[in-house]
């Protein structure tokens, strides 16, 4: 069974984080929500508090096939400033494991040197932080093991693409049909 970890920080964009969790679980893909804060409760950017399954320091990241970074503010900055997150993302990218980032979170990948010379997309308005990246204006961009997406409005597209990557096009279509997408 494929395993995905979704890293949540105070100020994360709830739709971006939770849509991915919901869609992957509908596809029967194991998802672990992980707080990078000092508490299992993470406070979303719009006042929605989420109970995570684990704290960052409790997790063995070698067990996962993919790490996902939701955007939102200041959630993206909290992820970007976390030493452990930076280490895990760099390791996943280096090892060829999947890294997903949506909205402003692709700027984290850029700051780590993961996106240089690669194709990606991001939230309109943070492009100035994405120099040396081949930016597109499509909803979701896959460049080898890096998957990026634009934001709240593309969260379902992003989640379905993650399902396709992990479990195939047929499973992604099945889930899309089941949610009338």
TrEMBL record:
<dbReference type="InterPro" id="IPR006287">
    <property type="entry name" value="DJ-1"/>
</dbReference>
<protein>
    <submittedName>
        <fullName>Chaperone protein YajL</fullName>
    </submittedName>
</protein>
<keyword id="KW-0677">Repeat</keyword>
<dbReference type="Pfam" id="PF01965">
    <property type="entry name" value="DJ-1_PfpI"/>
</dbReference>
<dbReference type="InterPro" id="IPR050325">
    <property type="entry name" value="Prot/Nucl_acid_deglycase"/>
</dbReference>
<feature type="domain" description="DJ-1/PfpI">
    <location>
        <begin position="2"/>
        <end position="164"/>
    </location>
</feature>
<dbReference type="GO" id="GO:0005737">
    <property type="term" value="C:cytoplasm"/>
</dbReference>
<dbReference type="InterPro" id="IPR029062">
    <property type="entry name" value="Class_I_gatase-like"/>
</dbReference>
<dbReference type="InterPro" id="IPR002818">
    <property type="entry name" value="DJ-1/PfpI"/>
</dbReference>
